[in-house]
Design brief:
75% of the residues lie in helices and 0% in strands. By secondary structure, the protein is an all-alpha fold. α17 packs antiparallel against α21.
Length: 402
């Protein structure tokens, strides 16, 4: 499977793609609204970063206990529950006059649900597509993420000029209601991928095998840590650019979109795999220039170029599929998603803390972004030897049997 025509000829993939578009656009709008509320109420870069990226820290608990839910529950049901939990949270966030502290409490609901079922969508993509179509399918889902982040953050920035944050939350909830309807009507009722007497025991056992693998563990860490540190830079867009931060989020998503199109659609397997290292470097390198406190147009160009580096996640996830078995695929993607989100949350927390230590204003935020980029480069270099163990080659097999 090499063309978009072949890919979108699969009916269930079309539904999953549209669902993800609605899901990401609504998330971007709601996240920008919440970040704006938090920064206006507290003036704290740390709390602002946590409000936009910190909730997934709660997924650590759920993933450890219920991560196998993505394989033990019917995919359509799992995806519906995930989207529905975010819909409910947005409706509650829309309550006028709600204290920002209670808004943080509401952030707990979607991540806890996602920790159990969050891997269901990507696992279903792998199920409904032929093996040679997974990377193109995953890249296309990433394109949906990038495109809808451009739309969501750009639209959110414009809407904040004319509408209240309450109205933004209601709009986000309406989009998610459409997504739930699409899933219920357009996805077949696939059976669970696995059975187990205890979801907690199976979750623990599969997580132990995945994270204990000398082959798979470096792949996970390369997906999680360098990305998370760069999200620490992104969490400082609001302190750096103020009410124009939405444009930085939008151009960053556009860069990610371009990278996914080129790497996922046009590059053969050997080439995209060899580009993992250079793309990891590209992800961080442009942010070093923020030490000069660039103007918004220059900052936008730097963010756009850096975000192309996120496309390294495509060949890295291809390695995950190669070295794990299908019965655990939901948990594999769920664990990857949890680690990615936790890495992002930790990056946002550290980035905000560094900026706060340096002071308040544009220059401390820019300096903190430079320091986070240096940390990302250092981690990428450190993980390179372990990553060599998962390189494609003869005799590949699933490293984590179930």
């Amino acid at each position: 499977m090499r063309t978009y025509r072949e890919l979108f000829a699969v009916p269930e993939f079309r539904v999953l793609f549209l669902t993800q578009c609605l899901n990401i656009a609504s998330y971007a709008v709601a996240s920008l609204a919440l970040g704006t509320i938090t920064y206006e109420a507290t003036g704290s870069p740390v709390l602002t970063g946590l409000s936009m990226f910190g909730a997934p820290l709660l997924r650590l608990v759920g993933q450890a206990l219920f991560g196998s839910g993505a394989d033990l529950v019917r995919p359509r049901t799992a995806i519906t529950v995930v989207i529905g939990s975010t819909l409910v949270a947005d409706l509650l966030q829309a309550l006028p006059g709600l204290h920002w502290g209670w808004r943080f409490v509401l952030l707990a609901l979607p991540p806890l649900v996602n920790s159990a079922f969050g891997g269901s969508m990507m696992a279903l993509v792998a199920d409904v597509l032929p093996p040679d179509g997974f990377v193109l399918g995953r890249a296309t889902i990433n394109i949906a993420v990038g495109l809808m982040q451009v739309v969501g953050f750009g639209l959110g920035g414009l809407l904040l000029l004319h509408f209240t944050t309450t109205q933004l939350f209601l709009g986000s909830a309406a989009a998610l209601a459409v997504a739930v309807l699409l899933v219920r009507l357009g996805i077949a009722d696939h059976p669970p991928r696995a059975t187990a007497a205890s979801v907690v025991r199976r979750s623990h056992e599969v997580n132990r095998r995945l994270l204990g693998s000398r082959i798979v563990r470096p792949v996970f860490l390369t997906l999680w840590v360098p990305n998370g540190l760069i999200v620490g830079c992104e969490a400082l867009y609001v302190p750096f650019a103020g009410d124009r931060a939405g444009w930085l989020f939008a151009v960053g998503a556009a860069g990610m979109l371009l990278g996914d199109v080129v790497v996922g659609r046009f590059l053969p397997v050997p080439v995209r795999d060899r580009l993992i290292g250079p793309l990891r470097i590209l992800l961080a390198l442009p942010y070093l220039a923020f030490v000069l406190v660039p103007s918004l147009p220059v900052a936008s160009l730097l963010v756009f170029v850096a975000s192309i580096g996120y496309s390294a996640s495509l060949p890295l996830q291809e390695r995950l599929v190669t070295h794990t078995e299908g019965e655990a695929r939901g948990q594999v993607f769920g664990l990857n998603s949890t680690g990615l989100m936790v890495g992002q949350a930790m990056g946002a927390l550290v980035g905000g803390a560094v900026a706060s230590l340096l002071g308040v204003g544009v220059e401390p935020a820019a300096t903190a972004m430079t320091l986070m980029a240096l940390a990302s480069l250092a981690v990428s270099v450190t993980l390179t030897p372990g990553l060599r163990r998962s390189r494609p080659g003869p005799g590949q097999h699933a490293d984590v049997p179930t």
